[in-house]
Amino acid sequence: MTPDVINVRAAPDYTLVAQFATGEMRRFDMRPYLDFPAFIALKEPSIFMRAHIKHGVVAWSDDIDLSPDTLYLRGQVLQEASI
């Protein structure tokens, strides 16, 4: 089972740095996903920067969220704390 996300930081280059309940950190590039209908609203920088945690999931609104599985499995492992 993938651990919950406990902290997230959105960057202006459309990347996320997520910290998981295990203490692991991953960087995730959202740019390839921004043309998907579910994420198209995140092209607006002010909306993308609103990333927050809701029940262990990265969310932007009630309609837009990103699975911790995707972040964990496809994110780049970070060796040092970046949040």
Strand content: 25-35%
Based on DSSP secondary structure assignment, what is the total number of beta strands?
7
Report, as a whole number of angstroms, the end-to-end distance. Answer: 23 Å
Q: Bin the helical content.
A: 10-25%
Structural class comes to mainly beta
SSE succession: EEEHEEEHE
Number of individual domains: 1
User: Number of DSSP helices?
Assistant: 2
CATH names the topology as: NE0471 N-terminal domain-like
Give the CATH architecture: 2-Layer Sandwich
Task: Supply the CATH superfamily name.
Answer: NE0471-like N-terminal domain
Overall, the morphology is globular
CATH hierarchy class name: Alpha Beta
**Low-confidence runs:** none
How would you characterize the overall build of this protein?
With 83 residues, the chain is mostly beta strands. It has one domain (5-78): NE0471 N-terminal domain-like (2-Layer Sandwich). The protein contains two helices and seven strands. A four-stranded antiparallel beta sheet has the order 1-2-3-7, covered by helices on one side. 20% of the residues are buried.
Entry summary:
The protein has 83 residues and is mainly β. The chain is built from two helices and seven strands, in the order βββαβββαβ. The longest helix has 7 residues, at 68-74.
